[in-house]
Amino acid sequence: MDRTVQLTTRPTERDIAYDPPPAADTLQLRAGRVLEENWTGSSTVPSRGLYPHQWSWDSAFIAIGLRHRSPLRAQTELETLLAAQWGDGRVPHIVFNPSVPLDAYFPSPDFWRSATAGRGAGAPRTVQTSGIVQPPVHALAAWLVHCADPWLSRTRGFLARVYPRLAAWHRYLLHRRDLGGGGLVSVVHPWEQGMDNSPCWDLPLSRITPAPARSFRRADLDHGAAEDRPTDLDYGRYVRLAADYRDRGYADGPGDFAVEDPAFNALLVASEHALARIAHELGAPGTARHARAERLTHALVERLWDPAEGMFFCRDVRTGEPIRERGVSGLVPLLLPTLPREKVAALVGTLTGPHFGLGATTRLVPSYDLLGEAFDPHRYWRGPAWFNTAWLVERGLRVHDERALADALADALIATAGTSDFAEYVDPYTGEACGATGFSWTAALTLDLLHTRSHNVRPAADRPAVRGGDGG
Questions:
Q1: Active-site residue numbers?
Q2: Mannosylglycerate hydrolase MGH1-like glycoside hydrolase domain spans which residues (predicted)?
Q3: Splitting the chain (472 residues) into consecutive groups of 10 residues, what average pLDDT does each group show?
Q4: What CATH number does the domain located at 27-454 have?
Q5: Residue 254 neighbours by CB under 8 Å, 6+ apart
Q6: Domain boundary assignment for the chain
């Protein structure tokens, strides 16, 4: 029976009702089975068919969930990814498995040509990778993984080994990707932001001449319905952007596509706070990193906050103008622990209002404005609900003591993960599975939410005032 309350005002703990999640023990076993099936021996693929390699932010989310089952595997997940880091500090968005046939995924290693085209940027010689990046969730993941078993982490020297790599990763972003000159990181390809096909990219992408359709073969259509995936026109633009970046030797600069994205920068803030805690654990001061996180928070508010709309918008670096499309990216800054209270209240109002409908018309957070012209409940990042972005919103709600809404969202995520067979993404209204099933970050984050709900955990690890401690 659906007991979801139709909400017209901000919810309270008494207002929100939700169906109970499935039996936790059964769901834990099922989620664990997904992660076992997708484990390669050193990392976890997002899905065996559609995504047969290691993806950067997927591995961070996977490690966050794996820490509840095997802290050692969670550490290994992050260590494997960071072993493919480039000399300039970037963490590539794909680390390719050499045993997977080239035609199993496009763009494949022979497209990226990392060892040759990326030589000047310090691409590794012994492993093939892509040349672009994904959101920096990794320091947050590393800290939470450490907290799951501090004795194992200290015995293995886990934090001591990953800290220099994470610090170099952040330096790369802060020094090489401030393309707008205002202190925020820019993405140079929609794939970098992770929400590949969002309508937030339509305007800046319209300037890009697409690569000819005959110049590439889309492997994604072998595993997903064309009506749920990006169009051939958009895909051609993605290929053109990636090829141009490759042909410039992966050198960063103000190209045809550069966007300041609120979610990407909010995750950098969260990871800067986590990196400060890692530094403190290793006996070094973390004050400078907390201060840097505060400067990033200030820049994010100054450059991307829209008080009239009550949310953050992307900013097109090429034109200097905001991109007025309401995507879930504009809600993710709820993660910011020192975000002013009035902005938190405005974001919660937007989240539960008509554009996202959480608790009223939707049970999970749609990836795009329900009232937007480009909204599609099934097409990739143009409306469906994704488990990783909903997990980030849920965590942000807990950071700011929005407990009733966070509990309802967590229970809806847990229930939907179970009924959708751990789908890649779902229809935000019905929970119908879309994309791949048996998706790793869905299974992993389900494990994390089950732990959160059973232990009544509040994510204090995001709060800069706390030094050390679990918080996970």
A1: 196, 424
A2: 51-442
A3: 33 37 81 97 94 97 97 98 98 97 91 97 97 98 98 98 98 97 97 94 95 68 60 87 96 92 98 97 94 97 98 97 98 97 98 97 96 94 97 97 96 97 96 95 97 73 36 37
A4: 1.50.10.10
A5: 179, 317, 318
A6: 27-454
